[in-house]
Amino acid sequence: MKTAGIYIHIPFCENKCIYCDYYCLENRNSDIDIFTEMLQKEIELTAKDHEKDWIFNTIYLGGGSPALLSSKSMHDIIHQLKKHFNTAANIEVTLEVNPNETTGDKLLSLKNSGVNRLSLGFQSLNEGLLHTLSRTHNPDDCITIYNDSRKAGFDNISIDMLYNIPGQSVENWLKDLTIVSTLKPDHIATYPLTLEEGTVLSQQIDSGEISSVPEEIELQMFTQGSQFLTDSGFTQYEVAHFSKMGKKCRHNQHYWNLEPYLAFGPSAHGYDGKKRWWNVSSLDEYLSALSKNKKPISDFETLSYADRFNEAVICGLRTNKGISTAVLQKHEHNRSIESSLKKWGNYMDISNDTIRMKPGHYHLADEIVSEMLISDC
Question: Is the distance from CB of 107 to CB of 74 less than 8 angstroms?
Fold first, then answer.
């Protein structure tokens, strides 16, 4: 029986950040109740067609700002999933929460509704950098929501942090990580701010209104930040993810291990091991389809051999689990791969069974992967 995950996209947001390119909507909170109703219908319709022998051990509610939903809505959604799918007794249920968008009492209610893991979107603890990102919280809000989450009984808390923010220095970044690590979270995710085409931030960079961080500074932020967190007792189990013992994000591991996951909500993507599909990126179209008892799937793609091979390489070398040598040996042109392994051998641990990046060298993963990718031709 395969383990699998469930991702739910909640498209509502109080204020969309200028760097965000996820599908989310401001000023549509009045649609939350009908969305919750239609989301439960999507779960029911999907379950009718679900014939896989999977056991679901993770649920991840992202957005947007999923904490805008009421505790009752959260309970109803989780109950609907458990009613229609084979879920594990120890299922991990993660909710993304931004500072200043909830209270201690609501956190307690969310925990009682079935949420048992929080992903707190600090992003930065520097007030000026938060302003640059158009975040609406301040550093004190971050500390408050963390302490309130602990008081509510959450014993699995992740904190999201961003580096490569315009105006950020290596010293700023390490100071943030120092403060975050002293809070003693169970997990920390560190992401580089990426300039997504069409976002307000990208336009500001293109116009020269603000300046991006030089590549060499970004690299220093990554390498020094990774080393600091490792020295602070966290395990870097993926390029951007650091955890304490037993606190890895099980949901994200489905993605990296190329395990299946179902997806619900507008713009959400699902995967069954051979095929990917995605929902319409429109709340109105999503609600309309489900009101007619139709699943809101926009399109799908069947992965080729090269697609599956390349994803195995990309995901494998990003994690401390590595990639199985059996995957590489199946490839008919493995001489070119052997050449790459020989070239980069000093930066990898290579055994008979597994190839993985050595600690401290994850910054080379993308370059190495690019030389190992294949095409269908």
Answer: no
